[in-house]
Amino acid sequence: MATLESTVDKTASTVVPLHPLLARRWSSRAFDPDHEVTDEQLAALLEAARWAPSASNTQPWRFAVTRRGTAEHAAVLDTLAAGNQVWARAASALVVVAARTTGADGAAQPWAVYDAGQAVAHLSVQAQAEGLAVHQIGGFDRDRLIAVLAADDVVPLVVIAVGLRDEPARLAEPFAQRETAARVRLPVGDLLLPVRVRQEG
Q1: What does pTM read for this prediction?
Q2: Reduced to 3 states, what is the DSSP secondary structure of residue 88?
Q3: Is the distance from CB of 159 to CB of 96 less than 8 angstroms?
Q4: How many domains does the chain have?
């Protein structure tokens, strides 16, 4: 059986050392179709997300967890773009991430989407610690996914494929090639914004 360590090494090439959980995290599309994620692992992922920071502690994130082989998993899979279905069907679980963008009082929660993103970041690092891979999927039919969720007060943001990383050779092209391609990021200098300072007088 494939393991997280036995597959392609795509450790980030960084200017300064990063924690291995961050440096070794990457978004795999190759998932072991025989792997089953445990209740304890799923609980750890959700617990990590639960303890993410949020504006005024509003905790706007919501999750729908579906396991491969269930009707719920099939329903979520069916909302994905066809190209994503090809590889995401092998994932042990598909987790829908949604946000409550209004509070119980009806007031807007303008930071809800940002906060939900922080929760997913926590989840992805915890997955790495659990020996699991995750791939966040933005290609889905929003209206169909809303219809699948048994909640009318949330906005679906992303679907996360969770499972054990597998060998790229099992993937069809072009996905197999993408799996082994080098990871690329802009240099930090390109990400920095200047700050205007108002001159007095």
Answers
A1: 0.90
A2: helix
A3: yes
A4: 1
Query: Does 113 map to a domain?
Result: yes
Domain containing 147 equals: 28-179
Expressed in angstroms, the distance from the first to the final Cα of the chain is 70
Question: For residue 166, is it within any domain?
Answer: yes
Pairing mode, if any, of strands 61-67 and 133-137?
unpaired
Whether 156 and 178 have beta carbons less than 8 Å apart is answered as no
| Distant-in-sequence contacts of 13-19, Cβ < 8 A, 24+ apart | 13/183, 15/188
Structure confidence by residue, pLDDT tens digits, 98-145: 999 998 888 999 999 999 999 999 999 999 999 999 999 999 999 999
Tell me the C-alpha distance between 167 and 151, whole Å. Answer: 37
CATH no. for residue 72? 3.40.109.10
Q: Are 123 and 160 in contact (CB under 8 A)?
A: yes
Q: In 3-state terms, what secondary structure has residue 35?
A: coil
